[in-house]
Amino acid sequence: MKILVPVKRVIDYNVKPRVKPDGTGVDLSNVKMSMNPFDEIAVEEAIRLKEKGAATEIVAVSIGPAKAQETLRTALAMGADRAILIQTDDEVEPLAVAKLLKAVADEEQPGLVILGKQAIDDDSNQTGQMLAALMGRPQGTFASKVDVSGDSVSVTREVDGGLETVSLKTPAIITTDLRLNEPRYASLPNIMKAKSKPLTQKTPADYGVDTTPRLKTLKVAEPPKRQAGSKIADVDELITKLKNLGVVA
Amino acid sequence: MKTLVLADHDNKVLKDATLSVVTAAAKLGEVHVLVAGNNCELVADHAAKIAGVGLVLLAEDAAYEHELAENVAPLIVNLMSDRDAFLAPSTSTGKNVAPRVAALLDVMQISDILSVEGPDTFTRPIYAGNAIATVQSSDAKKVITVRGTAFEKAAREGGNAQVEKIGTTGDAGLSSFVSAELSKSERPELTSAKVIVSGGRALQNGENFHALIEPLADKLKAAVGASRAAVDAGYVPNDYQVGQTGKIVAPEVYIAIGISGAIQHLAGMKDSKTIIAINKDEDAPIFQVADIGLVGDLFKIVPELTEKLPG
Ligand SMILES: Cc1cc2nc3c(=O)[nH]c(=O)nc-3n(C[C@H](O)[C@H](O)[C@H](O)COP(=O)(O)OP(=O)(O)OC[C@H]3O[C@@H](n4cnc5c(N)ncnc54)[C@H](O)[C@@H]3O)c2cc1C
Ligand SMILES: Nc1ncnc2c1ncn2[C@@H]1O[C@H](COP(=O)(O)O)[C@@H](O)[C@H]1O
């Protein structure tokens, strides 16, 4: 079984994003970029399934600028077998990303597509669900446990009330949550090896997908700022504050 | 404009999250609520009483019992043939189902809206809430998820809508529900609690978390939350996580105990009315958003606080 893992190049999660003064977006010049953390978890899960013998090949795919090659090389260094870059400098919305991924899946025929549940830049949380819809396949979102057996996969999902387990027929789409695994670091020898793994370059036009955005961003603003309050001395003062807030009698 | 709201429920109780979505939908037009489930007539009756609801559609089928997206999405797509906007809460159910509907309708979803600025214009948080984007949709139909804390809850009483039973689309045969492990708690629900006590990595283990955070929460009649670090380390279950990728909360009072205040955590709680932080590091980022800060060792402060609180 082949596994397809879409990975997105995003602002590093340790960086505090700054809104551009002209209100057109977030300033990404000279900002550290990394693989979306949920996608690292997706790559790790695919590798573990391959190590267990449940998967035979892992294909990483990214839609983005030329620099997204670095993100794909990271996936290859972790253990993916080959990579596809669908290169574009335009911003591609989740719906168009899902259409491109569907086109890739039509060619590659993976048994599983494992995505992150959410990209930490657009915070959309929709690409995996959309891909599942377009492919007419089942979806196991927010996964904290994945078990493949035969032609089905059992997915334990993190839901608002706790955990829920569903069984999906493969091919299936999975999106990762934080507790699924702890991604490995690529070792130096593997980083070297990744340089010679195959990376195919494509464009959205190769797949005949129109990536024109449906949403127009009119403005990007900073949220209202909170002012730091005051420090208090001790528990007695805290109790007085809680009384003033009406939280305790 | 006609809207369709997906009711969030467990076949018995209509969840509060639905009420905020009704408020958002009412800003766009007439509100119809879909109750898809199994033996869930009671939920439909509740939905019909919500102020502002014009019609309740009740679709009962074993295939809808666990709100599997593969089964529910085709039903919604059918209902959208003569409606203009579909709105679901940003709950785990809403986030699972809505994008599937959007793709089937060939619509780009607008996730987690904070406000309705016009019939096609909305604000939404991006980059963990460090930026607020105003976006305009060019799609003929809108598919939207709604952040519960950003909209007032519609009144649970005051409406008198008709409940219409509708035909179902059955089982898509792609997925099945196996089991659920739901947290049971007598405490208020995290997303609708007035007071939240949250604990972080500093609690060191589950025993300390239970022994220190829970008695304090009980005295304050508060819900209990946690940082990702506390969840990852297994002190508490996943559904306690507050943050960018956990639950978004905005209580009257949020008490962060031994939580550093990473941007991902702040994203989930910085709209709380009053933030109280207890941390031994006076430079912890949480103090930059806290209204009231107490610097010190939580292992000393929390027991003393719980002890001295009345009740
Ligand atoms: C993709 C992604 C998504 C994430 N999503 C979330 C999310 O939704 N929610 C979330 O919370 N995090 C999230 N995180 C994690 C986040 O970046 C932080 O790692 C996490 O919030 C830290 O948790 P913490 O504050 O409990 O732990 P730490 O950062 O380790 O902080 C512990 C704090 O306790 C204080 N302390 C220690 N001992 C004591 C004591 N005895 N008394 C008082 N204070 C003490 C320390 O001074 C410190 O400030 C996410 C990260 C990523 C990469
Ligand atoms: N440009 C992209 N390239 C590759 N994968 C992507 C891209 N955008 C989104 N994804 C995948 O979809 C997931 C969810 O993203 P989103 O729906 O934007 O929150 C991510 O974690 C990735 O796995």
Q: Greatest contact pair?
A: A-B, 82 and 91 residues
Instruction: Name the overall outline of chain A.
Output: globular
Count of distinct structural domains of chain B: 2
Instruction: Identify the overall geometry of chain B.
Output: globular
What structural class is derived from the secondary structure elements of chain A?
A: alpha/beta
From the structure provided, what is the oligomeric state, counting identical versus distinct chains? Answer: heterodimer
Distance from first to last alpha carbon of chain B: 51 Å
CATH topology of chain A: Rossmann fold
Number of strands of chain A: 13
What is the CATH class designation of chain A?
Alpha Beta
How many domains would you count in the coordinates of chain A?
1
Named CATH topology of the largest domain in chain B: Rossmann fold
Would you count the extended β strands of chain B for me?
16
Following the backbone from N to C, one meets helices and strands of chain B in this order, namely EHEHEHEHEEEEEEEEHEHEHEEH
- Portion in helices of chain A: 25-40%
Q: What is Rg of chain A?
A: 21 Å
Looking at this protein, list some descriptive labels.
heterodimer; A: 249 residues; alpha/beta; Rossmann fold; nine-stranded mixed sheet; two-stranded antiparallel sheet; 27% helix; globular; B: 311 residues; 2 domains; seven-stranded parallel sheet; five-stranded parallel sheet; 8 helices; binds flavin-adenine dinucleotide; binds adenosine monophosphate; Rossmann-like_a/b/a_fold (chain A); electron transfer activity (chain A)
Describe the fold and architecture:
- The complex is a heterodimer of chains A (249) and B (311).
- Chain A has helices at 37-51, 68-78, 94-108, 127-135, 188-194, 235-244; strands spanning 2-6, 9-11, 33-35, 57-64, 82-87, 112-116, 139-149, 152-159, 162-169, 172-176, 199-202, 215-221, 230-232.
- Chain A has 249 residues and is of the alpha/beta class.
- Chain A has a single domain (2-245), classed as Rossmann fold (3-Layer(aba) Sandwich), CATH 3.40.50.620.
- Chain A has a 9-stranded mixed beta sheet with strand order 9-8-7-10-6-1-4-5-11, with helices on both faces.
- In chain A, strand 7 and strand 8 (152-159) form a beta hairpin.
- The model of chain A has no long low-confidence stretch (mean pLDDT 97).
- Chain B folds into 2 domains: 2-165, HUPs (Rossmann fold, 3-Layer(aba) Sandwich), CATH 3.40.50.620; 195-308, Rossmann fold, CATH 3.40.50.
- Chain B is 26% helix and 28% strand.
- Chain B contains 8 helices and 16 strands.
- Chain B has helices at 17-26, 41-49, 69-79, 92-104, 206-219, 228-232, 263-269, 298-308, and strands spanning 2-6, 30-37, 55-60, 85-89, 110-113, 115-118, 121-126, 131-137, 142-146, 162-165, 175-182, 195-199, 223-226, 253-257, 274-279, 292-295.
- In chain B, the strands form 3 sheets. Chain B has a 7-stranded parallel beta sheet, with helices on both faces.
- In chain B, helix 3 (69-79) crosses helix 4.
- The model of chain B has no long low-confidence stretch (mean pLDDT 97).
- At the A-B interface, helix 3, helix 4, strand 7, strand 8 and strand 9 of A face helix 3, helix 4, strand 5, strand 7 and strand 8 of B.
- Strand 12 of chain A pairs antiparallel with strand 8 of chain B, so a sheet runs across the interface.
- The complex binds flavin-adenine dinucleotide and adenosine monophosphate.
- Adenosine monophosphate binds at residues 6-8, 36, 38-39, 42, 62-64, 92, 94, 97, 115-116, 118-119, 122, 124-128 of chain A.
